[in-house]
Amino acid sequence: MPHSPTSDGRPPWRATVLTLFPEMFPGPLAVSLAGQALDAAIWTLRTVSIREFGLGKHRVVDDAPAGGGAGMVMRADVLAAAIDHARIEEPDAPLIFLSPRGERFDHSLAVELAAGPGLLLLAGRYEGIDERVIEGRAMREVSIGDYVLSGGELAAMVLIDTCVRLLPGVVGAPASLDQESFEAGLLEYPQYSKPREWEGRTIPEVLLSGDHKKIFEWRRAEAQRLTARRRPDLLGSPKSREKS
Ligand SMILES: C[S@@+](CC[C@H](N)C(=O)[O-])C[C@H]1O[C@@H](n2cnc3c(N)ncnc32)[C@H](O)[C@@H]1O
User: Fold this and answer.
1) CA 130 – ligand 1 centroid, Å
2) What angle, rounded to 10 degrees, do the helices at 107-114 and 153-164 form?
3) pLDDT tens by residue, 147-168
4) Can the peptide bond before residue 195 be classed as cis, meaning omega within 30 degrees of 0?
5) pTM higher than 0.85 for the full model?
6) How many helices (H) and strands (E) are present in the chain, helices listed first?
7) Atom of ligand 1 nearest to the CA of 145
8) Ligand 1 centroid to 160 CA: how many Å?
9) Fewer CB under 10 Å: which end of the chain, C or N?
10) Which residues contact 12 (CB under 8 A, 6 or more apart)?
11) How close is the Cα of 150 to the center of ligand 1, in Å?
């Protein structure tokens, strides 16, 4: 299927989610920045219902784990049929299985994935999926953290939302992305707005001074102080060294 270009001529970034619960989408991706960008065709969203590839009258997609044990496992043949179908329209997108044992999703992976054509995401359910389809379709496994969700759909939304806000034209002022947590290998400095005084708490004087050089220096020092206290592991990263 041809993909109509965005208003600046770029093809839209395309997210395809293979799921047993297509009704969960677009869900939160339809509102705010991601939703506006979806309406503006900066990105597109397609769901592929794994159930349609299920076997027999009851469209069975899972079976008992080989070797016994609790729960059910999504079948390799069913998943492969769904993936191969989705691949027809998405020959180039990286195929990712959302999985608690995958590599940890972070800002640098989001930058890498947002720079590509889009994502083909497989959301697991039950106890997970047959290992052979992970190998047979050369899937990359990605985790959103060290905890177990009921299914991969929320994790898919996390990847999509994070990538979409990095696409050109999604965040109004691109400079605000430069200042965000992780972009410079640092956590973001504290933010303040109105009112000038709230419950006896004031805004740091320097932010009201109008002196842009001093404000820049204060923010950088605060970002470094917060990062050192909360996430010292980030300070050794090449990005944080560049900025210090
Ligand atoms: C109940 S979980 C299966 C957990 C699996 N039995 C295990 O112990 O690793 C069902 C599905 O949710 C998704 N999922 C759960 N936690 C996740 C996480 N932290 N990151 C990404 N996907 C996750 C995966 O697609 C997984 O196949």
Assistant:
1) 13
2) 70
3) 999 999 999 999 999 999 999 9
4) yes
5) yes
6) 8, 9
7) 19
8) 17
9) N
10) 3, 4, 5, 6, 41, 42, 43, 44
11) 7
